[in-house]
Design brief:
With 396 residues, this protein is mostly helical. The protein has 18 helices and no strands. Helix 6 packs antiparallel against helix 12 and helix 17 runs antiparallel to helix 18.
């Protein structure tokens, strides 16, 4: 499986906002809207994903996602005006959102006996690409311009598409030979599973809402907060890279550990505590120690690994995994989409960003609530209606 970052578009753009602003008139609220777009777009694609899962194969949807992401990244690099930049950002994020939805059922389909290990590899690659994008954004922008620094990531989409194109071509060859490979009927059973009628579905939605509000607000605004506290822009960009890459240790461990745990609440509490302690240090500790608190806050991103692993932990079929993934991400990201925008809206000069970080703290409570709701070891399919056999009509 080839994985690419679901956040690299934002992490590459955030340190470059000053350069982009030289060509496009970005103000604080526009930047907040830019931070909203990933979660809002992910929400839209989450709601659209379930009908798509009924009609298309997972591999076809993944290729569609790569096409949308490539088109969006190239359009962002053209940067004709602010509206075009935001519109193509939406296109890219719709593609990335579709990847997020289909990844769990793809893991269940191809690696049913190694979900924890392969899931750890997938989430790790997300963290690596996010950190690399943030670290290279400013140097590439300085030497080649911000358009190149943003557009270069479209190449990763093309690379990611190659093995899936090969796989689909192989499957079609089997089909033409009259021996199509066996597959689970995801489309035929997806309609019977309704996550929105279960505590598992809503609990997972709250988890996605809680961690994504915090993560995307940080990816959008962490450099601005640090610069406001006296840090150089290049150093602030490096801090964003550090923040991003700190998800890696947990990305390698959490999916494997969660597969062996019956209740994930203790792990979730550790991530929430890391977010809270890191935010407190960034706000109140001396600016010279900001790097320490960025490191601690960055550890909280392990909540994404937890959420990703729990989708397959609380389902036993591809259809269940796809349904839970679509609903929880659609609803969760919809709730969280206001996070980066409110982070900007609540800030005013002289307040030290305290209201903005207090809002993120409220979302951490939402995250904990979601984990409590899915903490009990149950399966989504056990809450779904089972089709009843047709009753025989007795004739007199």
């Amino acid at each position: 499986m080839v994985a690419f970052s679901a956040r690299e578009a934002v992490s590459a753009a955030s340190p470059l906002l000053g350069q982009i602003g030289g060509d496009l008139p970005f103000d604080a609220l526009t930047t907040g809207m830019l931070g909203m777009l990933p979660t809002a777009s992910f929400a839209v694609m989450g709601f659209l994903a379930l009908p798509l899962l009924r009609r298309f194969e997972l591999e076809q949807l993944l290729l569609l996602a790569l096409l949308l992401t490539t088109l969006g990244q190239l359009g962002r690099a053209l940067g004709l005006d602010v509206l075009a930049f935001l519109a193509f950002t939406c296109v890219a994020m719709l593609g990335i959102g579709l990847v997020n939805v289909v990844a769990p059922p793809l893991l269940m389909k191809y690696f049913p006996d190694r979900i924890g290990m392969v899931g750890a590899i997938y989430v790790t690659l997300l963290g690596v690409s996010t950190a690399v994008a943030a670290q290279l954004a400013v140097p590439l922008g300085i030497h080649y311009g911000w358009r190149f620094s943003i557009g270069i990531w479209a190449a990763l989409c093309g690379i990611a598409a190659i093995p899936w194109l090969t796989l689909l071509a192989t499957k079609r060859a089997f089909a033409r030979s009259g021996t199509p490979p066996a597959k689970e009927g995801l489309a035929s059973r997806a309609h019977a599973i309704k996550p929105w009628k279960t505590s598992i579905g809503w609990g997972m939605a709250f988890i996605f809402a809680g961690f994504s509000s915090n993560t995307f607000a940080a990816l959008t605004w962490l450099p601005a907060v640090l610069i406001d506290r006296g840090m150089m822009p290049e150093t602030a960009g490096s801090m964003l890279a550090v923040y991003s890459i700190l998800a890696l240790p947990f990305a390698l461990i959490v999916p494997v550990v969660v597969q062996r745990m019956s209740r994930p609440l203790p792990v979730a509490i550790l991530f929430v505590a890391a977010f809270a302690i890191g935010y407190g240090g960034i706000l109140f500790a001396p600016p010279a120690t900001a790097g320490i608190w960025v490191v601690i806050a960055g550890l909280g991103q392990g909540a994404y690994s937890l959420a990703f692993a729990m989708i397959n932990k609380r389902t036993r079929t591809q259809s269940g995994s796809g349904s839970l993934s679509a609903f929880s991400q659609g609803t969760g990201y919809a709730l969280a989409s206001v996070g980066p925008f409110l982070f900007a809206l609540l800030h005013s000069p002289g307040d030290g960003w305290l209201p903005s970080f207090a809002m993120l703290g409220a979302w951490l409570l939402v995250l904990v609530t979601g984990v409590i709701m899915i903490n009990k070891p149950r399966m989504l399919e056990d809450h779904s209606p089972v089709p009843r056999p047709a009753q025989k009509v007795q004739h007199r």
